[in-house]
């Protein structure tokens, strides 16, 4: 392991993390819900009365933010180096895995850890380990 | 729509915006940066660890309050998960998710925010994620009698 000091952005990482933590906190305190993105999206596939509007509002807020951010002079950079075939495979794995594992980076990695849940700690360690190993195989073994 | 539904939707809209702002500011909306974190055995960018650490640090206070109350501050029912146990399905799901995360550098939150950029690759990933979720639902329903 070698730390990439030129890529490391501690200031914006900490600030962004505070915003994410504040969002999850506000949601729990005001709405009594977990701000877990895979769970919020997954709920559309199991529609129940009175359970759709808040999900639509949450996703709409997420989708509207990049435009607002750029309006305020910010710049959002998105670099996707994976091929289309890889993205399809990765998407299927992420979709299936987050539903089977009852959460993703936000639900387990932020909210669950903040709830001191052993279940979320186990999930977070598992997807982190799998992510590290996958990038190791793809970047350093295959190519 | 009842009043409590409207209040809940408003809180959701605001949370979605704040959450997305955090993902954008931290750089986590960029798959290249996320992969830099996941490249633990190469040139490692520790940023994501700091994002998560800061988010969890703030969250500890709010979630401590939430788990001690039966109703939210707006009077909505508190829906914190009661299942805290580790089972096989959880680990299998998390590992499968982690593999996909490592391949694309995308997890569900950033993928939604990236959709707004109109990038065809982001759209392809998001549609595939939905298909993966639908596949899981279909497999679950087949198990039911």
3D structure, described in words:
The complex is a heterodimer of chains A (143) and B (145). Chain A is mainly α. Chain A is built from 6 helices and 1 strand; from the N terminus they run βαααααα. In chain A, helix 5 (107-114) packs antiparallel against helix 6 (118-142). The relative contact order of chain A is 0.09. The model of chain A has no long low-confidence stretch (mean pLDDT 96). With 145 residues, chain B is an all-alpha fold. Chain B has helices at 3-26, 31-38, 47-67, 88-104, 108-115, 120-143; one strand spanning 43-44. The longest helix of chain B has 24 residues, at 3-26. The two termini of chain B are 34 Å apart. The model of chain B has no long low-confidence stretch (mean pLDDT 95). At the A-B interface, strand 1, helix 1, helix 2, helix 3 and helix 4 of A face helix 1, helix 2, strand 1, helix 3 and helix 4 of B.
Keywords, separated by commas or semicolons:
heterodimer; A: 143 residues; mainly alpha; 6 helices; 68% helix; globular; B: 145 residues; 1% strand
Offer a quick outline of the entry:
Chain A is mostly helical and 143 residues long. Helices cover 68% and strands 1% of the residues of chain A.
Strand and helix map with partners:
The complex is a heterodimer of chains A (143) and B (145).
Chain A: E1 2-3, H1 10-31, H2 37-42, H3 53-71, H4 84-100, H5 107-114, H6 118-142
Chain B: H1 3-26, H2 31-38, E1 43-44, H3 47-67, H4 88-104, H5 108-115, H6 120-143
Helix pairs in contact in B: 5-6
Mean pLDDT of chain A: 96
- Biggest beta-sheet profile of chain B: none
Secondary-structure element order of chain A, as H and E?
EHHHHHH
Number of domains of chain B: 1
Number of domains of chain A: 1
Strand content of chain A: under 5%
Distance between the termini of chain A: 18 Å
- From the spread of the alpha carbons, the general shape of chain A counts as globular
Mean pLDDT of chain B, to the nearest integer, reads 95
Distance between the termini of chain B: 34 Å
| Relative helix content of chain B | over 70%
Structural category of chain B: mainly alpha
User: In one word, what is the shape of chain B?
Assistant: globular
Helical residues, percent of chain A: 55-70%
